[in-house]
Amino acid sequence: MYFKLNHAEQELKSVFECWVSGTRSYCVSQLSGGGGTGRGNQDYLKAQQLFLERLAMAGMKILKVALVSGRNETPPYDDSRELDLTRLPNQDDVRAFRIAVNRLAKNVGRDASKPGGSRTKKLLYEVRWPGDAKLLEGHVLKALNFVVAEPSQDDLKYKALGDYLEAQDDEVVVLPIHRIAGLVGGLPKSARSAQFWANAQNHHWSRRKQWLLRGFEAFWESKESQVRFIRAEQPTDDPTLLSARIEYEREQIRAKKGRRTPPSGSRKPRKVRSVVYRYERSASIVAWVLEQARGSCEGCLNVGPFIDDKREHYLEVHHIRTLAEGGPDTVDNAAALCPACHRELHYGLERDVQRTRLLNQIERLVDHPCRTQE
Ligand SMILES: [Zn+2]
Ligand SMILES: [Zn+2]
Description:
Blueprint: E1 2-7, E2 10-21, E3 25-30, H1 39-57, E4 61-68, H2 94-107, E5 122-128, H3 137-144, E6 146-148, H4 154-157, H5 159-166, E7 172-176, H6 177-184, H7 205-212, E8 216-221, E9 226-231, H8 239-255, H9 283-293, E10 316-319, E11 334-337, H10 339-347, H11 351-361
Antiparallel strand pairs: 1-2, 1-6, 2-3, 3-5, 4-5, 7-9, 8-9, 10-11
Helix pairs in contact: 5-7, 10-11
The structure holds zinc ion (ZN) (2 copies).
């Protein structure tokens, strides 16, 4: 459950999450409003102060303060993220305690290589009721004057839409505005506009991320009063997935007969670390095959299509039985090919015909058996 603090009849812009940990302690973590600048940040500190004041007034004792990353993270936390309470002033001096907590938190788990503290830190307080009494959630909420967070918090409100989209298999999901309103519990008047459903990340990100992060783009269709969610391209580093998607995208473009505007792409593609298994190849085999080809493709017999940066007619060496199929890295399994012939042997519709043709055409080649490894 998410909660906000009520203060002078007003909810502060900071969401707390609370749960009972074990039987006698209670966990409260302050989720949002931190980081950033401006009003949100002001509310975060104000909420933190109020929360600590109310804890002290109710006589609740703070057992632990830790930095957590995920929601609902439960103890034990690793030592590096638990603040050393012995270094903090007594919690009854709320202001001093709060300042000390934040100062300490700033430096915990800090990556020395990066300037500044992390902005995504969340503080979790493990608290205990006075006299070790068994905790009842109602007591805690009342003592702290917590109110159940209204679903007006965009993050929580629009999650239902995101979850719905994620569960769909279709590439296009069309939802009438009243359906969406039903899903998220009411929409503002402004929802009947293209602006509301714009796919920009800057404003109202908490709403937009519900479809953008799940791989959809939204399009408001005013005539029908509906929103068309189209599965947008999620960049991938998986070549098989990528080639499947390219095929799908091309079908889409053809089906719409060029009505599509050019895709926006990405100005800064993400870099991912990946593990690739490569076969070791012998330089002497490549060199020998290239040398005896003397600049001409052993497939089409044409001279290599351009002069490369080594001042050679450019050719590539292909394994007739691929190494992945258990083929050997030997001259009787390798041919020098121009890029066109080479690509055809990998991706051509007639690649098997071309392979047989090569085996017949080049005397030294042997048709090695396929031994696909598991
Ligand atoms: Zn060729
Ligand atoms: Zn090849």
